[in-house]
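Let's do one together. I've listed all components of the complex below, 783 residues spread over two lines.
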Amino acid sequence: MEDVEAPATPTPGTLGKTVSPPPEPESTDPAVDHEEIEKLYEEAGHWDVNLGEETIHAKRIQGQFRRIKWYVASIYLLYFLGPYLRWDGRQAILFDIPARKNYLFGITIWPQDVWMLSLVLLTFFIALFTATALAGRVFCGYICWQTVWVDVYTWIEEKLEGHPAQRRALDKAPWSLRKFRIKAVKHSIWLTLSALTGITFTAYFTDAYGMWRDYFSLQGSFYIWVTPLPFLIGSYIGVGFMREQICFWLCPYARIQGVMTDPESILPAYDKGRGEPRGKISRDGSTKGDCIDCNLCVAVCPMGVDIRYGQQEGCITCGLCLDACDSVMEKVGRPTGLIRYMALVESGGKARLNILKRPRMMIYILILAGAMAGVVYGLVNLTPMKLTVIHDRQPLYIMLSDGSIQNGYTVKILNKTDNAATFKLSVSGVKDASVELLNENTTAPAGKMLTLTARVKVGADDAPKGVGSILFRVYSDGNPALDATYGSSFVGPK
Amino acid sequence: MAEKKDPYEAKDTGHEWDGIRELKNDPPGWWMTGGYISIIFLIVYFVLYPSIPLVHGYTKGLLGWTQVDEYKSSLAEIMSVRAPFEEKIAKKSAKEILADPQLSQFALASAKAVFGDKCAPCHGSGGQGGPGFPTLADDEWVYGGTIEGITESITGGRQGMMPAYKATLSEQEVNDLVAFISGLNTGKAHDPGKAVFLGQTAGQADCVTCHGEDAKGNPDVGGVNLTDKIWRFEGTQEGIKRTILHGVNQEDDKETRKALMPTFGGKLSEGQIKQLAVKVFMFGGGKKG
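Okay, and this is what the predicted structure of the assembly comes out as:
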């Protein structure tokens, strides 16, 4: 997805370096605060596309997209709170790998139900496709944990080290007690957040409260100490240091999503027709384009790109340059929206298609609906037991002394409930079939598999010639929900 | 990225072919570091583990690790898991094992390999038997189908015996007897044959000693039940006739039926035999009580 009118990736070292000195103050327009604008030029004049050789210190800007980003980011508070929720006296969300049971509030998901996981993953993927076709890398810009974590980490950085110019100065300054103190506090907070990220992840797989107890008493299993480590290291280095480089070079979705947008997708875009020719605002009532070349859109970009060169691989569509440009347009008294969410077709003057008229959207929505319906079906039809009947392979049938035919079966009953259940067995489908269990114990403990050996006997005259079908029913008198049937075959002599 | 070295500034090796120059660009640092780490790993491995083949034997390595030791330790691990079950099995009788669901489950799984080795060649992997070899999964037992009876059969083996009647019975008597026996389970009476069976004819056949007057057999002496649908040997007219004429396990008769189960008493441990008995019982034909 390259812009029609711009070179794809700006070459480092060529952008933002051609700032001419501010023109002589001559204008008499009282609406424009020229001192404010001078400051803008001064602050942002040096901006450049960064390809990893220096840390990007993006300016923070207020605005509606900034606000939306905080709202979306706050969803991650649920991630941190999730493990401590309780349900029916147990952890509400728990992926108990050793016991092979997953708890999701009132639902218990067994390995047998894992087919739903594939549909859940499909749902996520297609939802990502749909969002990308609609609004480009909206996931990257607002929801992605990398973006959100970088947002929070740099917010902390700004609180401790000051605005971007101060941060740059501090980075360059020789080591002093003050620099050490600031950096030490920053890195401790980063490390704490990174550790919390990892510990929270781990807490979804074990008893969360017990795990904290183990941490404080320096005990517990090897796993609770090791599992958070990749997250700790990943957050601290990936978020604290690599930041936008992850999105540039490491993340596969950045590349995949780039090819999934189309001319109908809305993306942050610079209105070139309105903005050009850009130029410094002058006080003589200039006739130049609306872009005053203040570079604020570049200064606020966490990816360090210049959106005025068009949509490009670095852009995560976070919308911060929209906030920046709008704030400047307000200051200079020009209409906002010089940088706005715009589809490629709109920049050519055409209207966007209704999403229902875009075949790719229809296909996405159909797959999405199918996958979600499958998950809902699966959740609604979660059974408290699982029955499997396996016909003996050797021998297929046995003739008994009275001439009747006997088939052997292995009956496996998985009791998914939290209580022990005693099961009964009956068969139908073959005339006068009688079933006998070789096991005396037909009670399956809570959450355990019960394996029974069953013999089904059919009189010589009633036995099917060759392979017939038979239906097993397994039920429990104590719990009417525990009732399942399973079709198998009954083999007689030909 | 961060390293923006111009590759064309590298040292020229002086080699040139048709205008294509060979330059000397060093591999990236991380690559070389990986290589050095591999070499260090290699040396450490060679010192610690058996590695270099010599003319006689090989270097043993400082850790003294061998595959055989590893095999032995994993074997010991398996044995330690099985030990508590084996102990219980040693203390209990086959009947008690059968009554304990956990132990019988262990016995079933554990006896599978032994059954495959020792029993399946004749009786089939599922106890289905074969021509001349009894089915273990049905409900007819020549020597009794209780768990004790099965244990005894495995321990001591079994050798069937039935005299050959080709010398003592006349052609007519044999034919009558065949008609009587094959009629037993279809409900067709045959009085002349019954007389032969009861030994009331000239040939004085001695069937009832083992098969009983009601022809239902006697498990204590291995007398087969002749009234049911299951035949120890062939159930056809010719098959029954051959069994009567040549008997079972008659040494001087080439046509005789062979019925010999080997003794496993000394070959398998008592625990193994008990587990096998449980498995055979669980094929479905075992008689309770």
